[in-house]
Amino acid sequence: MTPEPLTVRSITPPECRSCSASLPVDEHFCPQCSRIQSLGRHGDYFAFLDLPRRLEIDPQDLDRRFRDLSRKFHPDFYYNASPAERLASLERSSYLNDAYRALKQPVSRIEHLLSIEGLPLGPGDQGNAKVPPSLLEEVFALNEELDEIRDARHSGADAAALADRLAAARRPIEAKRDEHEHALAAASARWDSQASAGADERRATLETLRQLLLERNYIVNLLASIEREAAAHG
Q1: Who has the most CB within 10 Å: 51, 65, 92, 207?
Q2: Dihedral, CA atoms, 196, 201, 206, 207, nearest 10 degrees?
Q3: Contact by Cβ (8 Å): 149, 166
Q4: CATH topology of domain 14-104
Q5: What's the predicted TM-score (pTM) here?
Q6: How many other C-beta atoms can be found within 10 angstroms of the C-beta atom of residue 165?
Q7: pLDDT band for position 234 (cuts 50, 70, 90)
């Protein structure tokens, strides 16, 4: 029995709901009839704003793109449009705000890049998860010092002296934070230079960014614990 020839399944491109014209992926408006399109599949803020996946973004260019699309998506322009177009304007306006907030700040920009590149931070990564090995020494020393400061506070120790101890405990953590900011900037620049690099090289940079971000989040939590202790002193 002769086997049937294999057939290649074609992927049907999206179509405009108004004129049925084929649409390029991630197109905001139909190139044929100019009608706004429903949001549909998305998840890439860079593509939504027509930006390359780079971590160095010109803030003025980002603001310009945001303002331009905000005007085009504004629901007031679609007051007399069809229900589908009104819904599309609301969806795209909301998504635009999310994209702008995420890409405006360097840290959330890195988080989004990691997410769309397949290395997202999980919910447990944002809180007091397992101590990163590179921070063990600082975490141990800080926790020990905070315990002693709490005991001293409960014993009625001088508030000014305790404030000085807290300030001293904060300094090495702040230094570690600054060190990580520089490392993140360097890794971000390395990612931006790897547009034509191999997949393994790019993956290694993403993993470096992810690890640095996890450590940075833990450092932020450490500083927050110092601030809570300082607030307890009134």
Answers
A1: 92
A2: 180
A3: yes
A4: Helix Hairpins (1.10.287)
A5: 0.83
A6: 17
A7: low
